[in-house]
């Protein structure tokens, strides 16, 4: 049985300042950061995933950053189980876990559990990858509609990684993936979550998202993608299936202009932020903090105050 302990959660849409606030909070309360980000797990993908830089990571211990290569797969269930073990180990050391990141499914896997799945999917994964290359994602997405209508409604028709994962379960287990999750859930984490969702006025958020992309270009985002290609990672690498990297690959291959690629990345980033907000509004555990009102420092202070009020 997992020890009941207090954990701090700092989540919210992209570009709201979670990293800076998380570091400040963790330093103040004697915590360590668990990154709850499905893209920052990949090595060599630093700029395009807005990963904390070396200086930021040096200020406080971070977990679940740079744990796999871009061509390796890692699902929410694996993350949830590993993160729970990390949280339990922190508790034994008297360290406060500070969960920071905007991947709602990863956060759910920690708090609510995911279904435990011991199956070996390597062979069906190879088959589906070949089909993806030969038949295209649209065909596989339509197939998912027949096998698991719930997953089909939930997933984006461009989310190759999750579409393939759902098809793996459906084909190998011979059953609806959504039903598996409902029937075989893990036990919820026995903890007291002190959970906050950062937010800001929509127009201000979108301006920050656009400005952050321009900053990424200046810091070497294109060169980062070029280096990934030189290392042998390409479109078939699941890490590079995410927005930002795909569009810059198009630019490098000459199928899009940089301006066009940039506009698509900004649009997809705004759409992602909107989906994040929709997801987090369903979680009643979250207290909402308007960063425009409180600022980064003020938001951090409110989280710290709430933690000490709960402890005392």
How do the helices and strands line up, and which of them pair or pack?
Elements: E1 5-11, H1 18-29, E2 31-35, H2 54-59, E3 62-63, H3 76-93, E4 96-100, H4 104-111, H5 122-135, H6 137-147, H7 149-154, H8 160-173, H9 177-183, E5 191-199, H10 202-219, H11 221-230, H12 245-252, H13 258-281, E6 286-290, H14 291-311
Parallel strand pairs: 1-4, 1-5, 2-3, 2-4, 5-6
Helix pairs in contact: 1-14, 3-4, 5-6, 5-8, 6-8, 10-13, 12-13
What can you see in these coordinates?
With 312 residues, the protein is an alpha/beta fold. The protein has two domains: 5-114 and 186-311, P-loop containing nucleotide triphosphate hydrolases (Rossmann fold, 3-Layer(aba) Sandwich), CATH 3.40.50; 122-183, Histone, subunit A (Orthogonal Bundle), CATH 1.10.20.140. The chain contains 14 helices and six strands. A six-stranded parallel sheet has the order 3-2-4-1-5-6, with helices on both faces. The radius of gyration is 20 Å and the shape is globular. The mean pLDDT is 91.
What key phrases describe this protein's structure?
single chain, 312 residues, alpha/beta, Rossmann fold, Histone, subunit A, 2 domains, 6 strands
> How is the biggest beta sheet arranged?
6 strands, parallel
**Order of helical and strand elements:** EHEHEHEHHHHHHEHHHHEH
The CATH fourth-level homologous superfamily of the largest domain = P-loop containing nucleotide triphosphate hydrolases
Q: Return the average pLDDT rounded to an integer.
A: 91
N/C terminus separation: 25 Å
Radius of gyration: 20 Å
**Which fold name fills CATH's third level, the topology of the largest domain?**
Rossmann fold
Range of helix content: 55-70%
Annotation, overall tally of beta strands: 6
What class would the helix/strand composition place it in? alpha/beta
Lateral strand order in the biggest sheet: 3-2-4-1-5-6
Low-pLDDT sequence parts: none
Count of discrete structural domains: 2
CATH class of the largest domain: Alpha Beta
User: Count the helices. How many?
Assistant: 14
Strand residue percentage: 5-15%
